[in-house]
Design goal:
This protein has three helices and five strands, in the order ααβββαββ. Strands 1, 2, 3, 4 and 5 form a five-stranded antiparallel β-sheet that branches. It has helices at about 10-75, 90-100, 135-145, and strands at about 105-110, 115, 120-130, 150-160, 170-180. The longest helix is centred in the first third of the chain and has 67 residues, at about 10-75. By secondary structure, the chain is an alpha+beta fold.
Length: about 200
Amino acid sequence: MKVLSRDFTLKEKILLLLLSLILVGLAYYQFVDQPVRSALESARSEADALTVELQTVEAKLARMRRMRSELEDVTAGGTATEMGSYNNSKAEIASLNDILDQTLQYSITFANVTRSGDQIRRNFTLQFTTDTYENMENVIRELSQNHHRCLIGDVRCAAAKDLNLMESNITVNATATFFETMVGGTPDAGLPESKPAA
């Protein structure tokens, strides 16, 4: 049986050519145009996401540069202190003993440790006697500029034998607080439960 043994007429050839063009156009649309459009849209979305991420990173970098500049200013000014990790009591006591070694006599009494979030407060009272006003000033200055974060509270000075402060031994009573952090610290039995920050 010879179905296609005859030649196509001009009209049939034109219809076959149009049908072939339509099939090629559909194939192009389905297998080239749509995947390319989809890939371009995906690339645009990814570029937008990367732009947002880049802006976030640039903002963090600017904040870190600001913080570094502030830290360099603080360090250059000589006011940088360290907030040691809990339990830093041995280093703090050693520092106090070094500072108070220049006094005639001294005593230190620590209160219970308090905790607020990650911040630890080690309160203490201090009494010492110096032979001169300058030595007393020196001890107070060294305490306030201690490299461990220390805040001096109440300070009371009294001269011995009701003499002028400049002319006699001076006894000082003070309260102060060392600050520590739980960041990098290891809790132990002496550490109270965290109380919410006020």
